[in-house]
Amino acid sequence: MTRIGILGGTFDPPHLGHLIIANEVLNAHSLDEIWFMPNQEPPHKKKSNAIKEADRINLVQLAISGHPNFKIELLELERSGPSYTYESMKILTKIHPDKEFYFIIGADMVEYLPKWRNIDELVKIVQFIGVNRPSYSTESHYPILYAEVPEVEISSSQIRNRLLENKTIRYLVPDSVRNYIKENQLYGS
Fold this sequence. Notes:
Layout: E1 2-9, H1 16-28, E2 33-38, H2 53-64, E3 70-72, H3 85-95, E4 99-106, H4 107-112, H5 119-125, E5 127-131, E6 144-147, H6 156-164, H7 175-183
Helix pairs in contact: 2-7, 3-5
């Protein structure tokens, strides 16, 4: 059975922290692929709406293009309304019965799991993999695998703010992402 890691997020924009997490989890748990799943409307935070959906898709594709085991999954973007993991994983497991899914979350989301929609049903259809984040606990009474990742404090909001302030984002995002942002004058760049 093919083992797929799902990394969800706004990816607004995708950055090296996302890629490091994906690569570390892929290798730590011998997964076959990592699918980056941009969400439509994250239920736990406000989406920035800084750029068009098509640009977010292009940015993710550019960010992952150098890795043969990284793919993009557009399921959540194709649905309207909040992107609840439970609904998404029900659909993915139905479409891909030959795949075993692992949902990757940061320690901040590990702490938030009790508040996730249908969490008791969700843990029956997907295995969570938690990754460390500074100032958050990875302890949970839910069944979670873990992966240690280098602590790299990069956030999409930090990158958007730097662009608004006309500061460099070199080495925070892949060069292809940085060039696309510049060429398309995204985030006020």
